[in-house]
């Protein structure tokens, strides 16, 4: 959209120049001979305005600002970073364009109404990422608080035969990614609860990492995360290429590689956050029952 903006600015500026010079369309071809001096002065103004109208669009193309991020329309967003976390997980960082920060500061709920951020409501958001080749899109959850950090981060798992995962994993820093968003995943008034229990397996921990990033220890209720690591695909090999991949090789969430991963939240919330983890597969029933009772 904004790629077309310079043409628009250009034509606007020329018509503004015409108005300020009181030159009607086609006046150049009129046979009247205006007085000598005013004509020179008009020329100077015209050259200045013409110069401006050329230099502004040229500057736009030489130093492009990123396109606005919109929930209803795709735009190409440059990746600030694209770093591997495990053999199958990548961490992607995208700057929030300054013109788009309101989507995060004044978020919408899933029903389309504005959230009551001032009243303590938190909206967990995701974005849609598209494949440039075929018309498919997939949702990816932000793991951080884009208002505080002015950037969005997501962890993308590559699954066998997965198209958008393949696109995300083939990116490097500076590449463009087709994104639309943010889109509300769910919203919650944390202060209305005595305890929030967050149960997930694998990358499904991402909405909880965002919630923890947006929560303040001073206003948070008691928190508990129950998380099971995913089972690696059979025959998947660790980064050394010879030993089979173990669940711990996929344990990015418990690493120090990003400030939104579990160790930093444990530091931030102290005894206010209990983390119970299972190395492989499913979350046992007793763990959920224990969290709900305790
Ligand atoms: C609200 C929401 C938020 C999400 N947030 C994240 C996120 O933060 N990070 C993230 O990595 N994913 C997230 N997902 C899942 C993501 O949107 C895609 O479904 C996933 O990345 C696969 O897309 P793909 O195009 O690569 O594979 P597809 O072409 O859709 O799938 C290829 C094959 O892989 C299978 N498959 C799909 N997902 C998985 C999986 N997780 N494990 C094993 N097999 C699978 C499919 O059934 C299919 O057979 C989220 C989904 C939702 C609904």
UniProtKB/TrEMBL annotation:
Q: Which residues form the FAD-binding FR-type domain?
A: 72-189
InterPro entries xrefs: CBR-like, Cbr1-like_FAD-bd_dom, FAD-bd_FR_type, FNR_nucleotide-bd, Riboflavin_synthase-like_b-brl
Asked if the keyword Flavoprotein belongs to this entry, the reply reads yes
| Residues annotated as binding FAD | 138-140, 155, 157, 164, 206
Is Ion transport found in the keyword set? no
Enumerate the UniProt keywords alphabetically.
FAD, Flavoprotein, Oxidoreductase
Taxonomy, superkingdom: Eukaryota
The molecular function terms of the Gene Ontology recorded here are: oxidoreductase activity
What cofactors does this protein use? FAD
PROSITE patterns noted in UniProt: FAD_FR (PS51384)
Q: Which Pfam families match?
A: FAD_binding_6 (PF00970)
**SUPFAM superfamilies listed in its UniProt record:** Ferredoxin reductase-like, C-terminal NADP-linked domain, Riboflavin synthase domain-like
**Family in the record:** Belongs to the flavoprotein pyridine nucleotide cytochrome reductase family.
Q: Report the PANTHER family cross-referenced here.
A: NADH-CYTOCHROME B5 REDUCTASE (PTHR19370), NADH-CYTOCHROME B5 REDUCTASE-LIKE (PTHR19370:SF184)
According to UniProt, the name of this protein is: FAD-binding FR-type domain-containing protein
């Amino acid at each position: 959209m904004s790629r077309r903006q310079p043409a628009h600015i250009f034509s606007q500026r020329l018509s503004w120049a015409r108005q300020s010079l009181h030159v009607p369309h086609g006046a150049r071809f009129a046979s009247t001979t205006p007085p000598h001096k005013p004509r020179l002065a008009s020329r100077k103004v015209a050259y200045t305005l013409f110069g401006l109208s050329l230099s502004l669009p040229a500057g736009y193309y030489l130093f492009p600002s990123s396109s606005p991020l919109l929930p209803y329309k795709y735009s190409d967003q440059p990746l600030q970073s694209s770093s591997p976390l495990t053999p199958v997980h990548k961490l992607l960082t995208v700057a929030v364009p300054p013109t788009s920060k309101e989507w995060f500061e004044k978020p919408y709920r899933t029903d389309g109404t504005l959230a009551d951020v001032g009243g303590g409501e938190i909206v967990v958001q995701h974005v849609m990422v598209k494949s440039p080749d075929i018309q498919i899109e997939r949702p990816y959850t932000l793991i951080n608080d884009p208002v505080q950090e002015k950037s969005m981060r997501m962890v993308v798992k590559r699954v066998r035969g997965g198209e958008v995962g393949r696109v995300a994993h083939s990116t490097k820093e500076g590449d463009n990614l087709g994104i639309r968003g943010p889109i509300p995943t769910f919203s919650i008034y944390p202060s209305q609860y005595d305890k929030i229990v967050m149960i997930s397996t694998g990358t499904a921990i991402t909405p909880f990492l965002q919630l923890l990033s947006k929560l303040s220890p001073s206003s948070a209720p008691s928190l508990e995360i129950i998380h099971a690591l995913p089972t690696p695909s059979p025959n998947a090999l660790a980064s050394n290429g010879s030993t089979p991949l173990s669940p711990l090789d996929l344990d990015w969430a418990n690493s120090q590689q990003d400030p939104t991963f579990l160790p930093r939240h444990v530091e931030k919330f102290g005894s206010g956050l209990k983390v119970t983890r299972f190395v492989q597969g499913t979350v046992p029933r007793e763990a959920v029952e224990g969290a709900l009772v305790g």
